[in-house]
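The passage that follows is intended for readers who have already worked through the single-chain material. We present the inputs for a multi-component assembly, then the predicted structure in tokenized form, and finally a short commentary. You are encouraged to pause after the input and sketch how you expect the pieces to fit together before reading on.
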Amino acid sequence: MRDLFINYLLERAEKDNRIILVTGDLGYGVLKNFWLKLPNQIINVGIAEQNMIGFASGLAKQGYIPFVYSIGNFSSLRPIEQIRNDALYHNLSVKIISIGEGYSYGSLGMSHHATEDAVILSSFPDLSVITPSIQDDIKDTIDYCISHEGVQYIRLGRNTEINFNSVLKIEPFLNQIVKGNSFNAIITYGGILEEVLLAVDTYKLTNQDIPSVFTLSKSIDYSNFDFNFIDGYKNLVFVEEQNFPALLFRDFAVKKINNNPHTKFHSISINRVITSLVGDTRYLRSENEISSSFILKTLFSLK
Amino acid sequence: MNSIELAWLIRRDAVEMTHLSGGSHIASVLSMADLLSVLYVDVAKVDPNNPSLSGRDKIILSKGHAGAGIYSALANMGFFDREILKTYYQNGSILSGHVSHKRVLGIEFSTGSLGHGLSIGSGLAYGAKLKKSDEKVFVILGDGECDEGAVWEAVLVSNHFKLNNLIAIVDYNKMQSLDFVEKTISLHPLDKKWEYFGWNVISVDGHNHEKLKDAYKKALESKLKPTVILANTIKGKGISFMEKDILWHYRFPHDGDEYNNCLLELNKIKPITLRNPYQK
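Having made your guess, compare it with the prediction:
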């Protein structure tokens, strides 16, 4: 997965000198080819991840497209304030790569388990979290990152090969991997797809009702995501190598909650913005529609 | 306008802005007024009529809590209307307490969490070299800010990549939030620390404009190393009862004697060539 990613990134970088690979002293062997072919487009900033993101923000401000490379939580949780304040708030094109999503680095221990990063970073507005699942996703990921401004966070496994293919590409990052014949579906992303397919293959040995399997490898943009592909399913199983409540479960649950015919859920919270408004506490609550007047409005609207 | 005039305006505006808004950090603005005014008037290649000028020098206020100072500098240089300064901190203003770049012409980066600016500056400087631009990058830091590990990450990287186009200025007023720097986390000898990390170090009286100009000039001449100017300053400089008193890291001049005495003291040191914008 990571080798495919770096190889395709190299292909793009050979034609676009805005692309700079910034590593935090990691990538032994993996980045060797990139280093040999494009020594002016790769830089090692050492084991200093907060500086790495700030540095990349400065580079992006100068018109470059830095892809920042590290492993586990080092490029996400360690410099999370820099991601938020320096890159994201300034809408700078900083692309953050983390190798070792989920339990990829298993035996190395908890410090190297990326099991909360996707959920945490997905809480930031306008930050896409991408965990490629199949080979097609790799190219889609890099193409998407280069063509879209702003910050994307890319989580890759360590495997060098991916053997799974899509039977139906519904849209970029949304693929059907198994066409089942039942009202059950599994939705997943990343390396844990192998566990899902192993389970389905085993289930098939003794059962006729085969679940469908989908991969949804990019975090949802609530404003324009089409949930229709899950219509008709009675059971949706979300398999995610993240701590509960995980990313997809949370997002689909919100959608389901909104459509629940028996119990209505209402959320009064900040609408996915890091505000640049200036004002006191009450002013900001009012402008972001979480003040008492909005609570009251909701109370009056309840039936 | 000369740098002495701008420094006075920064001090006078800081009193007014914090007084009106109830905002903190006046002493942090007063200590950096001189190094900031010399930078804008005599050193940096920026154009108030074209804030997006290609190849312009970049100025990052890493000690973002002194935002009132840079807002005043920019307004008086002509980046935006001075009238906007009155809205500092107010509901609906564009001028937040910690420096904001959104809709504020002349601000390159929003800051406020200490320790970020030098990293950004190192990336800007590296990127400038990549695209063969001769622009310079100036990052103004607080001395307490040098407690942050991220600062030293940037110091290491900047030395390694020989970012001679990067100039850090430490507003070395020897005080931070709760006490003097040396009683909090000792930085002494700060000059040696930067020097051993590979930087050129220039120590200067941070309130002497001629010496500041020389320091900036020398920094700009560096061929191989980034430079830090350790500007020895006095926290609260310019208003005697604010000088070297931790209280004024937080307190704003209240109505009555405090505010009036600020004005009395500043009026005594107003450059005679300068028209006081607060006098009708």
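Commentary: Chain B touches chain A through 42 residues (CB under 8 Å). Chain B has a mean pLDDT of 97. How closely did your sketch match?
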